[in-house]
Amino acid sequence: MLARKSIIPEEFGLPGLASRMPRKPVFRDRVNKARFIAKNGSCNLAHKNIREQGRFLQDVFTTLVDLKWRFTLVIFTTTFVSSWLFFAMNWWLVAFAHGDLDPGPQNRTHCVTDVKSFTSAFLFSIEVQVTIGFGGRMITEQCAAAITVLIMQNIVGLIINAVMLGCIFMKTAQSHRRAETLIFSRHAVIAVRNNRLCFMIRIGDLRKSMIIGATIRLQVVRKTTTPEGEVIPIHQIDVQTESAVASNSLFLLAPLIICHIIDKNSPLYDLSAMELQCSDLEVIAILEGVVETTGITTQARTSYVSEEIQWGHRFVPIVTEEEGVYSVDYSKFGNTVKVATPRCSARELDEKPSILIQTLQKSELSHQNSLRKRNSMRRNNSMRKGTGSSGGLRRNNSGLLAPKVQFFTEGGQNLNAVT
């Protein structure tokens, strides 16, 4: 049986009208994606299936420095105790071979005096390697083997001290410790500066000791696909900054705002405000420099995903002059304020410069209207207060009016009236 044809044409039906209606773009919440660089600067990267594990043992010193503190302390303690036990066994064997452990005449010369058991040999081993020298036990010239063991233990002890103490020193003076006082703003902003859309972040140094030759680098990392179909999961694109164009280093005396002009060479050139929120990109900021006090190169890193980039905001000023001294208020380090910014991309802004003029004009008009409303509200409030106070005074003064007093002459003529 054939379906009955409707009297209303299909193009004017509800499905047809709904298909032709303009739809607003639907932006679904993006799945929480792993970022390449965390906010604290650590690299979010896991190495798996490394077959050549022996390469780490070839660089033992760097491996020890990169280990966690608990493993380093365990290795530190184990190395010294093992060396003491190993040479204690050697001293005990020397004493056993010379017959010092056998009970005999007390006036016999021993290889090492007062070494009569393994415990005393262990104590003598510690005295030799740590150079404590309590004086109770000492080596004599009777045994060449004892002199040889003494020389070997001194050499091995010096090597262990140099390696382990150097490892502890390098772990305590690592460059990322200085990077803890190099701070970045929590959010990045995009606003108009000098009639151009700009991507901006703020950096600062909490210490008074400066970073010499500080440089800043910005990179955009995102997943791209080449025209040949090759998928590049980590495509790094260098982003030029104003500081890099002007000079090669920053004078990081006070917090600075790093600005990247979004031009045709920028990877953000085709992104509007809405497209930025849906894009899967990450902007990595890398600050490098030499520590003034130690001369060690340090590096601080952070990243900004699309949710951490505020479109149409600007950083508030935090440097003020107070009694001849420049003061920095770090409580406002990451504070931003909304400013008039076109929501279109930088490409559209270059093709239609009138968009920027219209946006600024609308912002100026709205600012003037808000000022007028504010002034009118203040005027009305002042008038209400003035009316209320004058009415109260009138009511209060009405009860204080003095009665009229008339004076008459003897003939009954009214001279005057005094109130």
From TrEMBL:
GO terms for cellular component: monoatomic ion channel complex; plasma membrane. Residues 37-174 form the Potassium channel inwardly rectifying transmembrane domain. SUPFAM superfamilies: E set domains, Voltage-gated potassium channels. InterPro entries: Ig_E-set, IRK_C, K_chnl_inward-rec_Kir, K_chnl_inward-rec_Kir6.1, K_chnl_inward-rec_Kir_cyto, Kir_TM. The keyword Ion transport applies. It catalyses: K(+)(in) = K(+)(out). It is found in: Membrane. Keywords: Ion channel, Ion transport, Membrane, Phosphoprotein, Potassium, Potassium transport, Transmembrane, Transmembrane helix, Transport, Voltage-gated channel. One of its GO terms (biological process) is nervous system development. The chain crosses the membrane at residues 71-93, 144-169. It is a multi-pass membrane protein. Residues 364-396 are annotated as: Disordered. GO terms for molecular function: ATP-activated inward rectifier potassium channel activity. Residues 182-352 form the Inward rectifier potassium channel C-terminal domain. The record marks 161 as: Role in the control of polyamine-mediated channel gating and in the blocking by intracellular magnesium. Belongs to the inward rectifier-type potassium channel (TC 1.A.2.1) family. This is Potassium inwardly rectifying channel subfamily J member 8. It comes from Sphaeramia orbicularis (orbiculate cardinalfish).
